[in-house]
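hi!! sorry for the late reply, been swamped w classes. u asked for the two structures so here they r. pasted raw, havent cleaned anything up. first the sequence of the first protein and right below it the tokens
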Amino acid sequence: MSMLELGPNDGLYFDHKAPTDPDGKTFIFVNPITGDCSLWDSMIAPALREAGHGTLIYNFRGQANSPFSADIDLDDSLIVDDLIALIEAENPVRPVVVGLSIGGLYGARAVERGLSLNGLVLINTLRVMSPRIDWMNRLCLRLMQQGGMTLLRDCISHVVVGQTVQAAMIEDIFDNPPAYEPLDEDAGFMNLVTHMGQTSWEMDYSGLNLPVLVTTGYQDRVFYNPADVDQLFDTLPQGYRLDMPHAGHMIPAERPQELIMALLGFARLV
């Protein structure tokens, strides 16, 4: 892994591997707020590299191994700036950005700012802000203040992941109750989650004049609204769609093989 220096106390922890196939794309993975690059590098990125494609995975400032200055707001504008800076510094060949949840919004905003890509993949990104989603965003912050990431996991996993993952998690969570520890107010995740809740989801998707794959998990009980996804998808000039009825919000962890096949198929189109 490498570090892109962004200042005396700031940087992005990343790993960039070029395609081995002459026609291979470079998949650039943009995390959700409460994740890190291990989400992609356990199965998805290795499978894409095996098929001849390149990968660029990284962590936001404030996520694992990516340092940040204590006086910096880790908000959406900074995260989009960092994504653009990383791509400009590494100059990946035939780039395709893949974003999960708010990570997809960051990718779309980067395109809106002029970033040139071969394609964009939005995984459970399309949404319209509602009181329910606003409630969840505020709840995430309160739960971490009270019991850290573990309490957050225990309280919301059952409504964002699909039934298969729920069944795999439930015994471990309830047979082995953890000790909850509040997350330090100065921690990177606290900074990121605080500003996640303040992010505007207003986005003119009709301005994304490139191939866009939209992947949606039906069993996401918080962020998925069928009518909103349909309406926003219809505004995409070059939209492709893959719905996953048996997945929830965390498709890369819940249905990695299906996502790998979708990304390989999309690569042939872009």
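now the second protein. again sequence first, tokens right under
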Amino acid sequence: MTKKIGLLFGMEDTFPWALIDEINGRGAGVEAAPVKVSYIRDSGPYGYDLILDRISHEVPFYRTFLKCAAATGTTIFSSPFWSAADDKFFNNIVAMKLGVAVPRTVLLPHKQHPAGTSDKSFRNMDMVSWDEVFEYLGFPIFMKPAHGGGWKDVYKVDDRDQFFGAYDQTRDLTMMAQEAIDFTEYYRCYVLGRSRVHIMRYDPKVPFHERYVLNAPETEPGLHERIHRDCLALCEALGYDMNTVEFAVRDGIPYAIDFMNSAPDADLHSIGRDNFDWVVRNMADVLIENLERPRRIELTGNWPAVMQGETAVKKPAAAKRPSPTHQPKPKAKSKSGAAAPSRTPARRPEK
């Protein structure tokens, strides 16, 4: 019986069709096609052996459809259960447990009340000591949402005034503040099926169409091995079957900057022909292999066992976190000579 692979996608036009053609051209007894869905009956059926999800993070209806399909036997790449629950700050905590270096990061209170809440909803919220935040992170600082991607609502700030100016624009988002890594090398890596890694030199400082570096110098073997190992460890722990992991290298240590991309950009015109062909070919391999050796329903990766110390993970030497070079200004003295309190509310008063 022919097995069916469905691709669930939105606006992208190159990767899904190329992948469908690659799978169907293999003659492996597998049929690939775009997913078709209208309404969903509670009695099913869902019609696919495996679905590659590229869009449910933006369409809640699709997310529910995928969870129901998974519950009735369809394999979903990546798990719709965990991807509905994770966030970048929590993933950083998992990364540290794995021995993956990450920048110093803090989670910030909402600047504005989320819909349906009021001051009374926040009686457990204490005042934020901004001096402590800035001392821990140092400047410059990147601010980014704990949920989401695509460089939306990301700010780089160089001082307190810029920080609060950016914070004032973050609405009710859950924001992270993160130390900026002054890097000498930067890498973006595709990770497919938690087994295949494609390491690419990348330059986030240049225009978008020039970021994938052509004819890049060879990466030092030890660094290459560390990046490869960290990619697999992160995706196995988080249960991502398709992901991009980005590393900024400082003092020879790769810091994982961004690794929550279960539907990463794979457009031919963005990533270039060589990278595109690698992704299409290897994604087809991974999907067909999974149909041959299907896995049981999976709610998440192995991070619960990792966090409990139950899974043996070969860790590289832990990256030492040096103190930031930024030094906070001395605290002002009160009239009594004692240091004046530095705590200020999370929601700065309007001027």
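hope this helps!! also noticed smth abt the second:
The chain has nine helices and twelve strands.
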